[in-house]
Design a protein that fits this description.
The chain has helices at residues 55-75, 95-109, and strands at residues 21-25, 28-34, 42-45, 80-86. It is α+β, with helices and mostly antiparallel strands. The chain has a single domain (4-109), classed as 2-Layer Sandwich (Ribosomal Protein S5, domain 2). The chain has a four-stranded mixed β-sheet with strand order 1-2-4-3, with helices on one face.
């Protein structure tokens, strides 16, 4: 789990109305917006009902991604807000592969 100051708040979702960048790696896509405040980088995982209709599966996917992404968020540059959109394949993906995909995305965004 991420600390409260590293999670995306309701107010931060308005940043995604302007210019944003999308990045993809395997079963993950990430949308990155620049935060005008010099706050720490924030991250949220969005798992829709199209991905998994069961709340148990959606929460399992969310916890799995947050557990791996925590180390990258803590090392990242400040001033960004990130939304991660997984595909259903993430549920069966080993943590090592998930870590590789997240590292590829974070380095292509320029956060690491």
């Amino acid at each position: 789990m991420l600390a409260r100051n590293r999670r995306v708040s309701k107010n931060s979702f308005s940043l995604f109305k302007g210019p944003i960048k999308n990045f993809y790696s395997g079963p993950l896509s990430i949308r990155v917006a620049k935060n005008p405040k010099a706050e720490p980088t924030r991250l949220s995982v969005v798992v829709s009902k199209k991905i998994a209709s069961s709340a148990v599966v959606r929460n399992r996917i969310r916890r799995k991604i947050l557990g791996v992404a925590r180390e990258f968020v803590l090392k990242s540059k400040p001033g960004f807000v990130c939304l991660v959109y997984p595909k259903i394949e993430v549920d069966n993906l080993p943590s090592g592969d998930l870590r590789t995909h997240l590292k590829n995305i974070f380095s292509s965004v320029g956060l690491l």
